[in-house]
Amino acid sequence: MKIDQIHPELRKTVRFILPFPHYSRTLVAILNLLLNVAPKKRMINGVKITDTPLENTTVRLYRPEGKCSGAGLLWIHGGGFIIGKAFLNDKLCAAYSKDLNLVVLSVDYRLAPDFPFPAAMDDCFEAWQWFQNEAPNMGVDPKRIAISGQSSGGCLAAALSQRIYDEGDVQPVSQALLCPMLDDRTAANYELDAINHRIWNNKSNRSAWTAYLGHPPGMPVVPKYAAPSRRENLSGLPPAWISVGDIELFYEEACRYCERLNENGVECKLHVSPMAPHGFEAFVPKASISQDLFKANYQFLRETLKL
Questions:
Q1: Domain 3-305, CATH
Q2: What is the pTM of this model?
């Protein structure tokens, strides 16, 4: 993909971002090891940060100073299912907490390939249940919690919404999916390799899905909740908001998932960023195109959380 296809505000930064070699287990292991020993902040811009261990994972809490609005947000980080830590989204989660006066819970879920599906899904569900049980102690109404995630975290957020619905428990008020990784069948389409999408290409996509599923993507059947787009009936799910760049690998699958949600009676709003590659908002957050994305994102959360 040529650089002149990228939005002018993003070109300077995107030009130097190379796809991470997710297929190299050695490099992935080294990166995750470094992340495990990296120092972690405990306060950002008036937001207190604490870590709480659960049975299989750890959750990272962000609480604004003063009285909370009574609403909460469960956040799930990205990283292709195989890299990443909750603290890497400290700035973003602290901004949600402070700007919207929310308690934010971020999940440090187990990573593939050491822990393939359903480990990450189970960790996110455990975090949801913990949040529901502990919400009153933090001044949060269990019925006013939204779920959100970015990239592979968007996949887990969408799948978690499906699982919670099936369990019949208290439902999230909404789901906000940022550049979500929803359909393993995209990775199985080798014709997309030639495009070589910026930041996240289909070769990386294929490696990530293979590590997560434990087998090559695009099989006739995948386990329930593994790939949200594979679910046939999407009715009953919480209102959704999806953001995606119109030149990124996930554009078609994001548009289709939004379309299917609406067809199934679930209100879904789609925010399309022009000439934008995958996850651009994380790399160039001050660009006006990124600010437009978060303005729409905040508006959706304010509406559904009744802020």
A1: 3.40.50.1820
A2: 0.96
